[in-house]
Amino acid sequence: MELVRALRAGEEAAFSQLVDTFGRSMLRVASLYVRDRAVAEEVVQEVWIGVMRGIDRFEGRASLRTWLFSILVNTAKTRGAREARSVPFAALGDDAVQPAVPEDRFLADGTAWPGHWTNGPAQWGAPLDRLLSRETRDVIAGAIDRLPEMQRRVVSLRDVEGWSSGEVCNVLEISETNQRVLLHRARSRLREAIERSAIEGND
Amino acid sequence: MSEREITCQELVELVTEYLDDSLPPDRRLLFEEHLAFCSACGTYLEQMRLTIRLTGTLREDDLDPIARDSMLAVLRGFAR
Amino acid sequence: MTIAYKFLRPGRMAPFTGARWPPAGEWLDGGGSPALCRCGIHALEAVALPKWMTEELWRVELDDSTHPGGGIVLARRGRLVERVAGWSDETAHAYAEDCLHHLPRGGCEVVRTRAADTVAVAATVIAGTAAAEVGYCAAKAAEADAPGGYERERIRQAIWLASRLELERSTPG
Predict the structure, then answer these.
(1) What's the rounded Cα separation, in Å, for the pair C134 and A64?
(2) Which residues fall within 8 angstroms of residue A154, CB to CB, at 6 or more apart?
(3) pTM, entire model
């Protein structure tokens, strides 16, 4: 692979390409394991060093991307385990089972349509361009930040980084089913956060 | 399990599986049968799709120049 | 060859996948061995039409088809033949009015509430999801009135539609 060859040769352009292609994403993934931004950056720097030391031995059986991220996750996990002693237990756990939509939005038993929407979901009203904004991204980033740890990791890897369900299960060492449940809960919270912000924006 | 239909409340809990294409065929049929007449659930599904799409836009943020420079500095240590 | 039906969104869009069907006459391949809700072309027998209403109703021709039940026809490939001309906003409105006509009178409170919900929806019906909703409400009201009512009402709706649109029954080829 051309980039690997250029890295082995120590070419400046290859370094830029590496950083521009993967840097931002690596920082985000590191942040899933270590809360502190400065520590996340240190983790990524350690990975660059590890990658360059190992680049001659890289056989290219897996893609560069897969290799990079597996080093990253291992490094971040180790570092995160050290930091974790100061993280309160509650932040690592999952929340109590909460429905995707609050119960009171549906008609109760004994009415004409038990289980059906009373009034339907709120209309967001905002046109797509207004939603595709810095503001919405900040709302979502904030909401992701407030999620319980495992939900945060799953939704970040699946929906922010765009990893497949198989890749996420591998890296997080959880089953497909478990992964989907976490994703479901996370997405429900994000949808609510966007809804609140879209509705408030209409006033 | 043979239900003749699912309710809106049940549907919203199945949305993630549906979008992941992992609902068993008989459940998927019930899901789509419900969607066929329920515009409220149609709206919910669209909102969920939009949520996923908007979450993906977080990928667009660039690396800040200072972080970028320090990463390049580390890599340049390996220049030949 | 089998003739069956397909409801699509405007512009020949499949309602759930969003995929666009090719223009009439061109074959669409189902992508492998047909399996219910997994793979293959899915179409409808006339008996199932009330459950799936959208804006466009098409007659389709299917190759190598099976009938897994529930009014669904599965096939390896299919092509649109033509729009069923009679399916329009006007027809949808007439369909809704007819459902209203057939709502059980009196009966228990649950039934009356369901009937009231149907009335509210029927006033604004055009071809599309709203028409499907009326049919659903009417079938639920029928079930609340008497066990088995749901199925009977669905069949009644299908017969009304087939007659109004002058549909032939799906004919195995």
Answers:
(1) 56
(2) A168, A172, A179, A182, A183, A186
(3) 0.89
Mutation pick from B34, B37, B41, B53 vs chain C, by most beta carbons of C within 10 Å, is: B37
Q: How close does chain B come to A116, measured CA to CA in Å?
A: 5
Give the amino acid at A22. F
Any A CB within 8 A of B40 CB = yes
**CA nearest neighbour of A34 among A68, A94, A80:** A80
Specify the residue for token string 């943020």.
B61
Residue type, C113: T
Nearest to C129 among B32, B33, B42 (CB): B42
C9: DSSP letter = B
Q: Please name the residue of chain B whose CA is at the shortest distance from the CA of residue A178.
A: B17
- Condensed to tens digits (0 to 9), the pLDDT of residues A84-97 reads 655 554 444 555 67
Q: Which of C165, C7, C155, C169 is nearest to C91 (CA)?
A: C165
What token pair was written down for A170? 């591998």
Tens-digit pLDDT profile for residues A143-201: 999 999 999 999 999 999 999 999 999 889 899 999 999 999 999 999 999 999 988 77
Q: C110 contacts in A (CB within 8 Å)?
A: 112
A194 neighbors A139 (Cβ within 8 angstroms) = yes
Question: Do the Cβ atoms of B39 and C133 come within 8 Å?
Answer: yes
